[in-house]
Structure to design on (81 residues):
């Protein structure tokens, strides 16, 4: 499905060190999750992604900050819609 493809692309970009593309794919995943998927499932998806990124990126503070800020904004945006 589309969500799985986007998650896979996000993980691939991350492992290749293509962080700009990873963040773009992550934003798409978050938009898809908040619009189509049930809340419990979306929380599981976000948690799974959040387990991957900090593992390698702990040395890249800017990436971590952007990643977590983007993640934190998603529930706020969903409340406003």
């Amino acid at each position: 499905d589309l969500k799985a493809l986007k998650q896979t692309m996000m993980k691939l970009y991350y492992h290749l060190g293509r962080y700009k593309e990873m963040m773009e794919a992550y934003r798409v995943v978050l938009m898809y999750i908040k619009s189509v998927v049930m809340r419990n499932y979306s929380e599981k998806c976000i948690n799974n992604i959040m387990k991957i990124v900090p593992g390698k990126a702990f040395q890249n503070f800017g990436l971590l900050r952007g990643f977590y800020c983007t993640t934190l904004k998603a529930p706020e945006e969903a409340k406003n819609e």
Q: What stands out?
A: The mean pLDDT is 76. The helical segments are 2-16, 19-36, 39-57, 61-80.
